[in-house]
Write a structure and sequence with these properties.
Layout lengths: L11 E3 L1 H7 L6 E4 L3 H6 L6 E2 L7 H5 L8 E4 L4 H12 L5 E4 L2 H7 L8
Parallel strand pairs: 1-5, 2-3, 2-4, 4-5
Length: 115
């Protein structure tokens, strides 16, 4: 697995540009691990919201397809880094983490959407 300058055990850390390219394939799932309030204020299009701080987080991710590639992101990268451990323990094998989170995504010039 290729890692840039950030190492997250169990996931490949990718740049916003790499994530944008990956998202053009229909097979990838995008998970936003921020709170519903943060998610509603702006998120990457087609992202699903699974609140990492919620007591139901581990139960919620069990409903996902374990073989499907997943990109995980939060606001800056802290929660997504922590959540990777939960995804791994739940049996997910193809994990990517958006380096710098939503802040870096927007800094790169990519759009977000809100409800």
């Amino acid at each position: 697995m290729g890692c840039k300058d950030t190492k997250v055990e169990g996931a490949e850390v990718i740049s916003p540009k790499e994530a944008h390219t990956l998202l053009k394939t229909n097979n990838i799932l995008l998970i936003d691990v921020r709170t519903p309030e943060e998610f509603d204020s702006g998120h990457i299009e087609n992202a699903k919201n699974f609140d990492f701080k919620s007591n139901a987080f581990n139960e919620a991710i069990q409903t996902l397809e374990k073989e499907q590639p997943i990109i995980v992101y939060c606001r800056s990268g802290k929660r997504s880094t922590k959540s990777i451990k939960n995804f791994r323990e739940a049996g997910f094998t193809k994990l990517y983490m958006l380096k710098g989170g939503l802040l870096k995504w927007e800094d790169t010039g990519y759009k977000t959407t809100s409800k």
